[in-house]
Amino acid sequence: MVAEIKPSTDPPLLETSASEPSFRARRGRRRRASREAAIFLAFALPNLALIAVFTYRPLLLNMYYSTLDWTLGAPTARPVGLSNYLDFFQSAEAGQVFLTTAVFTLATVFLSMALGLMVALALNRRVRGAGLARATVFSPFVLSGVGVGLAWQYIFDPTVGALGAILRSFGIASPQWFNNETLSLVMVVLVYVWKNLGYAAVIYLAGLQSISSDVLEAAAIDGASARRKFFSVVLPLLSPTTFFLLVTSTLNSLQAFDLIRVMTPLGRGTTTLIYDAYLRAFGGYNQAGYSAMLSTVLFGLLVILTLFQLVFLERRVHYR
Q1: Spatial separation of the C-alpha atoms in residues 84 and 243, rounded to whole Å
Q2: Where would I find the beta strands (DSSP E) of the chain?
Q3: What pLDDT does residue 11 have?
Q4: Mean pLDDT value across residues 97-123
Q5: 181-209 and 239-254 are packed helices; what angle lies between their axes, rounded to 10 degrees?
Q6: What is the pTM of this model?
Q7: Share of the chain residues as helix, strand and coil, in percent rounded to the nearest 5
Q8: Rounded CA gap, 15 and 18, in Å?
């Protein structure tokens, strides 16, 4: 008599021992992922909430206010749709405001970056007192714009200012910086460049010090002159730094306010887009809806310029 052998229903011992660690590993990864997600949300959510409340909510409210005929301080406002936008773009004021904004922005960005690069090249040399010179160049950037404006207002004063006294000592009459609209814009541009020159210089200095000396030595061995090394090696390697400065300096110049407000309170020749928004709301017009419209136009201009720089100009950047 032969006994019947039934197949065992128990899982093989080898399969059980191999799948158990794999299951534990997957469970451990899921727990770590959940824990990291919880930590991320714990840190990110408060900041996201603050940004939503104090940045995006005012932005959306400002866009809404731009469609109102609202006198500042009045308890009621009348919806007017896009009338504020049509009034601005069909007025002669729009061309002058955009021209002043463009001249101020182009002049301050170009001069700050060009002079900042020259100063950075000088500060990159290993000489005695280089640290003190770097601190001296950078210090105006951290000063208050109001304080800088008041100090330079005194210097440019044609009657009691230091600049007028120096010019008179050479027999030259002091220009009327505050009465002439062109000279007022020149004066504000010069002071803005002086204040922000150190920022561009420090950023360019960091870019110069990140360039490998091996590259420069290889160029020298190939017989490249100092001018050829600068334009063919150094300047292309600085293109990421130049692009960063171009974006940040353009945004800062378009939003420059404190120096213009302090040095030219009436905005004579210096009425940029952001300063016109201030004058419309608080300069006697009390046109809060019109001022909100100007702020919305400035926001759109910032977005367009930033996208243009990121989409088109970044292609010319040489990342190492």
Answers
A1: 35
A2: 68-69, 78-79
A3: 52
A4: 94
A5: 150
A6: 0.82
A7: 75, 0, 25
A8: 5
